[in-house]
């Protein structure tokens, strides 16, 4: 992401935390680029870069709610980051949300208050 004033959110409109995070951005006077990642999923490279920039593990970026997580065996602790990334790319609904990108950094905004750490 280039430019310090650009703000992007990987958003799922059906997710309360994602909607609330978007509201916090707007209350701060920002109108982010909204990427509905279920419709326009990130590439494997974009996803890996976002996870690294957020300072979290690949496993931290995996959504554990819902049947798909256990159906795919993603709860196995010995799964590699590569296997987890493969699952996230194949099934974007498994990407935890929302990721927010600003000139000050990247955060997985769960809890949503984490977005305040990177507000310009």
UniProtKB/TrEMBL annotation:
Q: Which reaction does it catalyse?
A: [glutaredoxin]-dithiol + arsenate + glutathione + H(+) = glutathionyl-S-S-[glutaredoxin] + arsenite + H2O
**Keywords from the UniProt entry:** Arsenical resistance, Oxidoreductase
Name of a matching Pfam family: ArsC
Top-rank lineage group of the source organism: Bacteria
Q: Name one GO molecular function term.
A: arsenate reductase (glutaredoxin) activity
Q: Identify the InterPro entries for this entry.
A: Arsenate_reductase, Arsenate_reductase-like, Thioredoxin-like_sf
Q: EC annotation?
A: 1.20.4.1
**PANTHER family of this UniProt entry?**
ARSENATE REDUCTASE, ARSENATE REDUCTASE-RELATED
Q: Which family does it belong to?
A: Belongs to the ArsC family.
> Which protein are we looking at?
Arsenate reductase
- Provenance organism: Xanthobacter agilis
